[in-house]
């Protein structure tokens, strides 16, 4: 019942489908716990689309990028805390209790966000959701690993990873579905309460992890669960194996011999394994995938697709490929090997980042210019910073960076790529610009594209 490395191949997945008919109880355990992975993916992905409409409802969020960043990043900060305390909660109170606590945090966070009257409470709700994400990210795969038969354990644990990326894809679909609904972002964020409530109810009727029960000397309860998981001809062997494993673990914990970390780090195989394992986790974050997932619709708007609905629809491509990648990796990991699959993936990451960098550079270096004549057309609302400047080298991007007061770009009436006007950024000027059938950009660079 160890939760270490488990091989995943096609036979394991075929065994899963076979087991669904022979013993659906195992799949009930695995997929009930796997809802935690789905919530993890949903709550990390849903903010990307909701943010577009939050900016529309709260002018302060629209004007202050640090508020947008806070709304997004506080969930990550909460996840760090949730993961840190999750290990202690798992060992002290059990895997089942940890999942129930995570569901409670997910539910409370979703309700707070859906009803938030201001950005402050929205951030508080994101913190609650982040705490749930942190606990679920470590508890769900642990519970699945300890409550599933050894021969299909790897396949079932792998489904948790797929549910995370699947949850992100689902969040984009939900975002797109609620674009026409009253309240838009409140529905997008609040709907996460439903799977959290569903998992909470399901877990109330499911048992604790048999391994944790053995650790707490509740052998009879653990054995009763194992008899439901394993066939009659295998259960006695599994009970004995679990008993020996737990006893060996307890002996090691009580041993007076301390682990010499310096000596371990001097061991070449240990050091290389540590660098590879930790390094991959670090670089997986440093490549910027979270930025793309959290701000995908905003990035699409930077490319010139001003419509929120269009931006969300195009962002489905990103989340869909992300989910597809998890399926492809599960299929090929034992056919091509870990190293080759990793190198291929990294080549794709480098190519994608290169393309993104080139596009952003071209966008900022070829922005429409600022015209004195166009700006004079709105003389009463011209940007003070532009009026006091020498007026040489000003373009859309430079206008948007002006402050005290903030300024916005009103595109030329003939063509949005022609030089436009640099004006004070407020709702009155925005309406005035739109009234002449011009494009207005007062925050991001959606109108400053090639």
TrEMBL record:
Keywords: Membrane, Transmembrane, Transmembrane helix, Transport. It holds the Pfam family Sugar_tr. It comes from the Eukaryota. Residues 29-450 form the Major facilitator superfamily (MFS) profile domain. One of its GO terms (molecular function) is myo-inositol:proton symporter activity. It is found in: Membrane. NCBIfam families: SP. Belongs to the major facilitator superfamily. Sugar transporter (TC 2.A.1.1) family. This is PPR repeat. It comes from Musa troglodytarum.
